[in-house]
Amino acid sequence: MARLDTIRALEKRGLSPELAEKTVDLGYLLGTLKKSDLKTLRKDFHYKEILQLIDVSKNRQIDREEIVAKALEEGDIIEGPISADQALRRVEKKLGVIWSLPEGYTIDGVTSHISKKGQVLLGVAFPINSKQFRYPFNGYVYLKTRGICYQSVISEVLSFDRPDVPEEEKLLLPAHTEEPYVTFLRIERLIELPRTIRLEEFRKMDGTQVKSARNYTQVEDALDLERELLRFEEERMFAVDLFKGMGLSEKVSLGLYTHGIFLASQVVTATDNDLRNAGVPATKIAKFRDAAAEAAAAELQKPVAAKRPAAKDKKGSKDEPVKKKINKFRKAALKAASELPGAYIEEIARESETKKLSKNDIESIVADYTKLNDKEHKIEEVISKKGKKLPQGIIREIASKSIEHKLKDKQIEKIIDGAILQFKQNKVDATEAVGVIAAQSIGEPGTQMTMRTFHYAGVAEMNVTLGLPRLIEIVDARRIPKTPIMEVFLEPAISGSEKKALEIASRIEAKSVAQLADVNTDITNLRVLIEPNKKILKQRGLSMEELAGRIKKRGRLKSKITIESGVIILEEDEVSFKKLYIIEDKVSHLMVDGIGNIQRAIVRKENDEYVIFTEGSDLKAILEEEGVDPTRTTTNSLHEVAEVLGIEAARIAIATELHKTLSEQGLSVDHRHNMLVSDVMTNTGSIQAIGRHGISGAKVSVLARAAFEITSTHLLQAGLTGESDVLTGVAENIIVGQPVHLGTGAVSAVYKPKKKAKGGK
Q1: Are the C-beta atoms of 117 and 124 separated by less than 8 Å?
Q2: How far is residue 95 from each of residues 92, 136, 150, 342, measured CA to CA in Å?
Q3: Going by C-beta distance under 8 Å and a sequence separation of 6 or more, which residues neighbour residue 500?
Q4: Closest to 625 in 3D by CA, of 485, 508, 492, 500
Q5: 699-746 has which CATH code?
Q6: Is the pTM of this model over 0.85?
Q7: Helix (H) or strand (E) holding 690
Q8: For domain 229-299, is the CATH number 1.10.150?
Q9: Most confident of the ranges 87-91, 297-301, 477-481
Q10: Domain ranges in the chain?
């Protein structure tokens, strides 16, 4: 699944499906492509393909003109380089819409009409701006009973000022020719999707999650049917094999897949009613859930990265392995530490690269790590003789302390015995209520937290949400934090240069027109005058023409734009004083340079290196900036982390943010409790909120839901749908007055009296 997601991400940037698949299978990522040289890429790709890859990745190390010339020489391309307009279309976001079928219409009726007439014109009772779409585009039909289960191909949007029916009445269903629709969608195809799709899989154009299909929702197109057929087939085969292994028939397994349930983790979070609707017999639900809970752990395993096959050139010889470009400090460290384990080698290499260590310093560090490695081996031998096991982190800590304090073998053995005993005592019992304990450990100190924000000294209006509000943001899985910030680290080679840090900060900080130019109104001639600051434009690398083009494009202005004597002039055909001032205000606040979401960027010195702190967050754009260290740069926007780096990175980010938020308040919570919370929030493959009704409202127990609020509604709904409560949680067992199946309640004690022997003895 991760492979297909990566392929889709590359396709959205403009790569063809075939090239995107080839790129991922060879092990390339966007960051790898950005830093790759021509020699590396030439081993795996043709010049025509390299041309697309450097355009998508914004690779500045390879001369584009050189590639075009070589491609023409070898016949890879016949035409010259693509135009700017063509390049823009490649990376432009595809638009789609989610809409409910108008009242009175049926899927069968629409399908039948399309088969007879070739197309159908469906009315929508609210206005839509037709100019924002490029045709054709995808539409997704939402049905209340099923979800999104049909894809439509919309060839045109017709918008009208008055609710008049178009002249093309023959394209309308007869029963609806007199409805007061103001917009019409012309549909040429209606295709049933292989499985239902949840709304949450789509994003609105502003980046927020789609929560409702009421009326009409414009979205970033998340699905292309032709490209996704393979994905659906893989999902279907996986789901059928998985559920058949859990004791279900093939028919029931297909029913679950059709209802959008194709993972074991989805079975765990689904309600009994959902499973019954999908065809699972009521008698098998409990057993099926138990089997799914065991299989869910396997789904969380990290997929193995595809190995890059050895490519062959035209002569038939095998290529050498791709070599990563490294600086002299890292190279010297790698050479000196070649005999050590891989983890130590990387630590030494990073320290050498960051601190720019001399050869003697590197040799000294290598000697220390060699001593540490030998001591670890000795400790592992002692532990092995005792027939016990300890985590590598504990072994390393013992080795480090024993060297530091020059401990003898007997002293080390006593420490090992103590560590084994403590490790055994800290293990969690099989019946331990870890969820309840974790909730108590976080909730109790959480009552002592303050509601405050941290203010950066010397920087106006730059705050960071801390304390209780931040804790609530994390567990609620807020899509956009109240104060989104980033810590942007620079590459080791330039991290010590304040000049470079200020340059990058200036480059990423969003700039409005008012920050680059003076904006005034010419009352006499009814026009807006923009006089750019030439010095600032030069620093930003912008020309007058580029600025004018960005103003027109990003402002979506219909105004006539001309340049006279170093002044950009905006003129309207028909304009009033009110409209003139509206245009001036709009243009003044229009962001035309930098990264749009980064409102402010400040540079601070931290531990002998300069770090950029930003107000606003755009992780994807920041990681693509030249000079930024992608391995250390962080954001407090958890959903951004999940979208850019994956769900595993989001899991770590949640635990880290929880620990950071609590520790800043002077509160100590076991990190394992934070990890448990992050595991629960991410085990389905997406970030889910923890609320009053469990994880994203998916609390299975009827009694637990009824115990919190609106009791009668929950019980009535459960009675109507035939839900059952298996009494596995804490609240529901307390309600019915029986022991909770946790801890001592999980053990049944039975007294069996000893029978008396014959004779009364």
Answers
A1: no
A2: 9, 10, 16, 46
A3: 490, 494, 610, 627
A4: 508
A5: 1.10.150.390
A6: no
A7: strand 690-691
A8: yes
A9: 477-481
A10: 2-91, 96-223, 229-299, 329-425, 453-497+599-682, 511-593, 699-746
